[in-house]
Predict the 3D structure of the following.
Amino acid sequence: MAVSKNEVVGWGLIGCGVIAPTHAKAVQKVEGAKLVACCDVIRDAAEARATEFGEAGCAVYTDLEKMLADPNVDAVSICTPSGMHSANGVMAAQAGKHILCEKPMDVTLEAIDALIAAAAGNNVKLAGVFQRRTYDSSKKVREAVRTGKLGKIVVGDSYQKYFRSHEYYASGAWRATWDLDGGGALMNQGVHGIDLLLYIMGDIKRLNARCRTLVRNIAVEDTAVASVEFVNGALGVIEGTTSVTPGMGGKIEVSGDHGTIVLDGDNITVWDVPSDEAVETSDGGDVGAGRDAAAGLGEKGHVTHVADLVDAIWNDREPEIPGREARRAVEVIKAIYLSSRRGGETVELPLSYDDDGPGIDDRGASWDW
Ligand SMILES: NC(=O)c1ccc[n+]([C@@H]2O[C@H](COP(=O)([O-])OP(=O)(O)OC[C@H]3O[C@@H](n4cnc5c(N)ncnc54)[C@H](O)[C@@H]3O)[C@@H](O)[C@H]2O)c1
């Protein structure tokens, strides 16, 4: 049933693991939404989330199809392993449910496009999660770049240096698998910083990259570096790892011929823009998330995402991060994987579906020592 304007949106959680409470708390904080259903193949997990965060009578499901048949559910958060997002989302769209989908939107471009098409075809909203985009500090940096405050943009870099332990990788059978995680340091963690770089700098035209598995005993990359050229002519670096101590989270550096800005986590630590007043530097988002999985992850950005989707439903508008926006970072990561697989060859964007595949160079080190 369609949701009328100002009617509370009944929310369902699909997947009740690590990130699910962040969505549940966000739903609690948004007046126009209420948590009415939780679904997980592990009943205890769904029950625990429903008890802790749900409205009285919050339903518990272990079968997604059954939850999607529940008329109280108007919108869902997809919090399952990344390679299941599109399959879950297509089912939700076909059942007429609006969708807030965790990052990455899926792990192949074809799967993401199938989800985008299903949402459009069934007239439901599809929003992607990239909470760092929602912070004022990110918006300020983007605005400064777009309005020419830094002059001609020369370089834009995204450094995503995280720490993830062996225990983290062992904590779920889907983690660090090509099929369900879609990659490692870039597809799971670095995707946030790559999205932010694209949000601030615009699209990438071509890149060269190397991916390696240097420390962790995993099938996917734990470290990757790419040299990139943006459509606006600037150059830059993308660096992602989950194997350094201490994890430092994400840093974006942008410099033009008239100024430089550094966004460290969610804090603007350098605002060297001669034409400008000093700016507020702290945004209080999820500082600390680089150190270990979900450590310090606040729900502030997710509150904005939930509120945005509610408003998009009420006003029949596009969400702030529609499917095609959430797709961009995945395409860049796929280009990085392709370049690495080809020994660092230049890869031009956009990619075709045939370019999909893992990121480790055949000749590069996998973890075999
Ligand atoms: N935005 C962020 O900062 C952030 C942080 C952490 C995770 N994530 C994303 O959230 C997603 C989930 O990550 P996680 O760490 O919570 O994983 P998790 O393994 O802790 O949770 C996934 C849950 O999905 C359940 N599940 C699997 N198949 C299901 C099905 N068919 N139906 C219903 N439930 C099913 C599992 O039983 C598990 O409880 C991933 O895509 C990840 O990238 C985003």
The radius of gyration is 20 Å. Residues 323-341 form the longest helix (19 residues).
